[in-house]
Amino acid sequence: MFRKFAVLLVIGSICCFIYGVGHIYVEVEENACRMTYMFGEPRFAPVRFGANKQFPNYGLYYYYEGVRKPLDPLKMRMTGAPVIFVPGNAGSYKQVRSLASVALRKALHSDSGIHLDYYTIDYDEELSGLYGGYLYHQQAFLKHCIRTVLSLYRSRNNNPSIVLIGHSMGGKVAQSVLTDVELSQHINTIISIATPLDQPVLNLDSRIAQFYTQTNALLVQSRTATRPTAETNVCNSLYQKPLSEQERARNTLSPRLDNVLLISTGGGNRDLLVRSGLTSSQFNDIHAMTSAIPKVSVSCDHLSAVWCLQFMQVINRFLFSISHVRDDHSVVFSGNKQRNLQSATAHFVKSRYQSRSSVMHFKSLQNWNEERRLVINKYFANGLKAHYHELISILRQERYKKLAIEVLNVDDDDWLFGCEAKTHNETGKLFCTKGTPLTHLIQRLPNGGREARNVAILDLNNLRKTYRQWTHVLIRLPPSSKRIGFNMDIYDPIDRTIDIRMPRWYTFGQKAAINETLQGTLHYRLRIAELIEPFQGLRVRIQPLQCLHPDYRITTRLCVPWAAGFERYQTLTAPDQKPGLYINVPLVIPRHYNTTLNPLVLDIYLDPNCRYHVTYEYSYADALARLVLEFYGWLPAHLACVLFIVMKNQVDKFQMRGTFKSLKAYIGYFQFSSLYIVTGCRLLKKVVLTTRILPLPEAPDYSINISIIIHCAAIALSIMAAFGVWIALTLYGNVFYRIALRVTRLSQATSNVLISVMTHLPITFGILTIAVALGSCSGIALIVAFIFYFLMLSNAYKDYLEDYLWQKAANLLNLGGSGGGSNENGETTAQTTETSNEGRAQQEQGPAISKNQTENDGLATSDRNEIADGDDETENDDNDDSNETNTDEEEEAARAAKKKAESSSDTDEPCLGLQNFPFHITLLLMLFIVLLLNMPATLAWARSRRYGIDLPDPCLYPSVAVLGALSLLLQMKAPQKCSGYWTMSVALYLCSGICLLYCQAAIYRLNFVIATAFVLLAAHQGLCIIWREATARFC
Prior knowledge:
Its EC number is 3.1.-.-. The chain crosses the membrane at residues 705-732, 923-944, 986-1003, 1009-1027. By secondary structure, this protein is of the alpha+beta class. It folds into 4 domains: 42-223 and 258-348, 3-Layer(aba) Sandwich (Rossmann fold); 360-492, Jelly Rolls (Sandwich); 494-620, Jelly Rolls (Sandwich); 633-796 and 911-1034, no CATH class. Helices cover 43% and strands 17% of the residues. The chain has 27 helices and 32 strands. The strands form 7 sheets. It has an 8-stranded mixed beta sheet, with helices on both faces. The protein has a 6-stranded mixed beta sheet with strand order 11-19-16-22-14-12, with no helix packed on it. The longest helix has 40 residues, at 778-817. The chain starts with a helix and ends with a helix.
């Protein structure tokens, strides 16, 4: 029963995984970024300095446009504020064009005289996100670039400052420069764009892990780190100050590196390379998603984040706001961290609406009106020729505590005031002579490319208590030729706040949150509890029931209370719009956090044109997509774990030669016992974290459902890989052989000699590949080893399959030719076939199995003698009493004896050495995993050869161990039938457990675990052979 359930679980998991991959690309919003265009020909002037000799493949360039004459910044007087762009993984130095071009256009149209000097670094488009050896080189070159650029400005400023903008891994390299005490004093601001700051996307390399660990450790010592706690709640107000600013108010900041402003940004749902939760850092002052940045309000994918016009404009507006012109007409960045932080908050978090004055006086006494209704929708289709004033009384019943106001097509910030109304003596109407602006309460909501929605949510009780003289709130609409108007909704917040809980994953169907809203309703708030893990997905459906007009727009704002800067806005214009309204969290919940007290907040700003029905449900599609996006990096560890358990099942089981089972290379892969390892590691992790008797395992403690789904997907993937290798061995061995010949440029004769030598003397295989690893790169050696190993298996399988088919054909011919003859003839033919097969097997397997063959031959001979004796006795009985004997029984016994004699030679001899195909296919797949893990280092080595740069090979030692152990296993014709396999099984169990405890996030550790398994297998086989030979000599 459990086996059937496990089969269904594996099939369901791989189907869910594939569906999740597809859903990621289906439910992605369209790219709403506007392209940035250059107004002149982009030009890059190289900046030459001493470090170019040390880093021949790197370069520093100055960006300018339109000027055809080459410029040399070293010979010019640079007067702008310096900015350095740092590209990321496979990034080009030309990606600075959008940023720099927008800055040039802004400087030309500005009367302030502020302009920026943009520099960009050429990192030769290195894959710094996959190979950590690049990061240290890039960090060192960036330091040289900063010193060189600063030297260009020291003549006009003794202490110049610089701004760094890093995209992708370039942001992490820029952040790491802060660990240099000297340079950090000259860095004003660092802006990271879609950067994995505190942990890498994929930890494929020990050098990447070392770079992150060292950088974070040094920053912890010199800069204030802010982490969410059980009391953190950033949703209590429209905008909460950054945590670092709160700490600064308490004067508890470190004095050394807190003078540098750190701003991080993420692309949102469209960025599938760097997920949102990785873009924030504990050392940041401000974090923002592009979909929540004022005047951007779009999600950017990983590449469009560096050319999205809306985003580029916001970055340059901020840089211009923190710059000022000196008396010598040079531009410098402000050194006032507090002022710069306020400006960053206004540009990246919440627009700072500045009123012209603290009190505004109203001279006009025309167009004044007072409304006492709770819901008002007022529009002027033809616009207004003069200001229109609407007074809303705040002296209401106690339960009406909230006032929601929305104005459309109003660009002026001063439209909302609080005032004390008076009665006009002549007209008897109420009016105000002066009012206090309430612009700080206004939110500018994205509206899907249409006119902006300016919304304010006011607390009437708070206004009455704070401003006792106020009687009204004033809405002042400016003159306009466009359609203009406002909506107002006064309500009891108890009626508009809905508390819901995240449905369980086994809950089906939709649940109603709001049965039906009233016409004219502007605002609802959903408080969502128990949504705590990144893979959970909640879908909220807002269905319009009846609308006065067919077009409507709904804006939602999601706030995660423990994740500052991850607000997400979405505009809905149709019930079946894609993507739908999916709710999930970017970060794991802090320990001891109570989501009942601090729930997620979903603010829904409705179109008062319609009535709505709101439901919610557990979204399996979004949950699967989030699972794939968050945890696809666990697959290598789980796949290695599965292969270890498969190897454990194969290592002591041998199929018999000549049987159909011996042709099945996938034997052992249809297993489910590795699921016990998942549960066992789950329990062991809790024990280790409590007792600390072992090194601490990886910290994240997600639901066990995640591990089971990923593990079952790995089981299915291993089965598909085994079938793929089997098909390749059977059908496409010659094709891969010809491809290998073309790639290696070897002649067929030379390759045949090499394969023959390596097949009969595999130790040369190890010597060759280890020499290649030490002389060039371990990845090249692994590629060579994989190719030769595959070709050896292909040739062995082809020869074995040919012998198997010839043997079966010969048996069929013998059965047909002896149909009317005697039994003795059939036995003689079978014995002849057996002898030829045994001779071939002895030549292939060598003296190691000759003793077993002799014993098997003796057993087969004794069986045949017993059968012959039985036949003689039967004949004597027939002569004594022929009337009592049944002729049919005699013929049946004869046929059974013949079949037993013919099959004895096929079923008694086990498949050893290369003929144990399941065992070697598992080894081949494990070798392939090590090869894939070494590919980034291999590509780095291939690129660095052009410049003669020596890069570290982090996987050299485990690769050498794998290659040496593999050659020994082939030399000893492993696997051999011997004792002690239970110890090998225990070792493989331990390796599989280590994979799940220590290698899910730190993928590079799999190199060492797999190398350990190879070495243990080789040691076990070697000790068994030595023990067997020693026992034979002693006997």
